[in-house]
Each structure stands twice: as C-alpha cells, then as structure tokens.
Amino acid sequence: xxxxxxxxxxxxxxxxxNRDIGLFSQLCELLYLFAADGSSKAREALYGKYNALLxxxxxxxxxxxxxxxxxxxxxxxxxxxxxxxxxxxxxxxxYA
Length: 96
Known about the structure:
globular; 4 helices; 0% strand; mainly alpha
C-alpha cells in the first residue's frame, strides 16, 4: 500500500477551507501521525496551515478559525514538544 497516496489526499483536503471542526481535527490528527512517522510534507502542511490561520486572526473574528487554530496548537505541541509550545505562546500572545 502506498502511504504517499493517502498522505497527499489528506494534505489536499486539509489545505482547503474547512468549517467542519470535527473533520478538521481528524485531518490534523492524521497529519500529526504522518509527521510523527517522519513525513516532512505532513509537518509542512501542519505548520503552513497554522501560519495561515495565525495570519488571519487580526482580520477575522471567526470562532471556527479560532477553534481550528486551537486544534493545530494542540497537535503541533504534541509533535514538537516544549519548543513548539513556547513558540505558539509567544505568537498568540502578540494577538491577545
């Protein structure tokens, strides 16, 4: 079975605009698993979406965007530990 096929499909769906928080959290978890297994593409997708959502915070007062960003923070902290946590706290503190 080709993991790359599934990974590409998940990344493609993940990068689309998505207001379904349940689906978004599942896609985050799947990409986390790929990234934890060593996939640089999955890691790049997670951080790319994080940066995009973080950049949209000042413009959008959208609860779905905020919740999606929260899910990403959880998975990135799980993936990269304290260094990710510290970076996320600093970045989010700039928007508080």
